[in-house]
Amino acid sequence: MEEINNLLYQLVLVVTFVAAAAYIVFFISQNKRIRKIARVILLASGILQTLYIAFRFVLVGHTPITSHHEAVVFFAWATTWAYLSFRWRYTVKNFGTFVTVLIFSLLLVASFSSWEILPLVPALQSLWLPIHAGVSIIAYGFLSLAFCGGLMYLLLERELKSKKFGYFFARFPSLDALDQLNSHCLTAGFVFLTLGIVTGSIWARQAWGTYWHWDPKETWSLITWFLYLVQVHQRFTVGWRGKKAAVMAIVGFASVVFTLWGVTYLLGGVHSYAG
Q1: Which stretch of DSSP H or E encloses residue 41?
Q2: Which of 4, 57, 162, 167 stands 20 to 30 A from 30 (CA)?
Q3: Long-range contacts of 7-15 (CB under 8 A, 24+ apart)
Q4: How far apart are CA 197 and CA 212, in angstroms?
Q5: 94 and 171 in contact (C-beta within 8 Å)?
Q6: What's the whole-number mean pLDDT along residues 20-36?
Q7: Assessment of whether the complete model's pTM goes beyond 0.85
Q8: Could you say which DSSP state residue 124 is in?
Q9: Which tens digit of pLDDT belongs to each residue from 52-72?
Q10: What are the helix and strand counts (H, E) for the chain?
């Protein structure tokens, strides 16, 4: 069973790599036929990622989101389907190239983590595990889209500011379209992030008798939530848009990454799976 599990993940890696390569070729050539092929391959990757998570669920007997490998795979899965759901409703020129490269990077990082299946500790043996952890990482998926959009915004804005309408100007959507993308992804991500904080607090009350006990990951999750709260407040109350919003999308995502990895390996705590 574990051998099948490993082979399935290797297939996920290969298919996602091909999708990323196809998107890069499209980005360079702007051949619409290649873009269609890249989309189909990314969809296949999303399906394979889902099958891998489902297979691992059967293998471990619980939601596979409690090790570093599993958490990062889930992060990649959430980003993949967040993008595919977004792409179903909106068209943002060449957005898929940046997102797919990020997805493959996450899966590659996960491949270097231990794939070992460990017994679930008593504190995690709860129905709140898939709810809290799942919702939180789905939030990370949407926020990673905002990060990609913010990066694209800054690259295009820099080119426009230099008055050299070259590589990015010909391939990126307008600054306004990228700003709207940031707004949609930020809103969806913040809603899920808030639900993650709330469900985590309820679970903590049941597990440890208190809603909050300032564990390092809890603290950094709260810091991340406040960073995005500032973005949402500034955008929808005082019209904070453009470059500031793009920069904050990148800063917020950096906090997400630190919460997921930095806290685990540098600060530890009861939420750590670093061993």
Answers
A1: helix 32-60
A2: 162
A3: 8/48, 8/51, 8/52, 8/55, 9/52, 9/73, 9/111, 9/115, 11/48, 12/45, 12/48, 12/49, 12/52, 12/107, 13/104, 13/107, 13/108, 13/111, 15/41, 15/44, 15/45, 15/48
A4: 10
A5: yes
A6: 93
A7: yes
A8: G
A9: 999 998 888 878 888 888 989
A10: 9, 0
- pLDDT, tens digit (0-9, with 9 covering 90-100), for 97-154: 999 999 999 999 999 887 777 777 766 777 888 888 889 989 999 999 999 999 999 9
Closest to 144 measured CA to CA, from 108, 109, 193: 193
User: How many residues would you count in the chain?
Assistant: 275
Q: How far, CA to CA in Å, does 100 sit from each of 24, 95, 141, 166?
A: 9, 9, 12, 23
Which pair of tokens denotes residue 59? 């293998």
Residue type at position 269? G
- Cβ–Cβ < 8 Å for 236, 205: no
Task: Please tell me the least confidently modeled range out of 27-31, 99-103, 233-237.
Answer: 233-237
Q: Which residue has the tokens 């999308």?
A: 249
* The token pair that represents 133 in the structure block: 């952890």
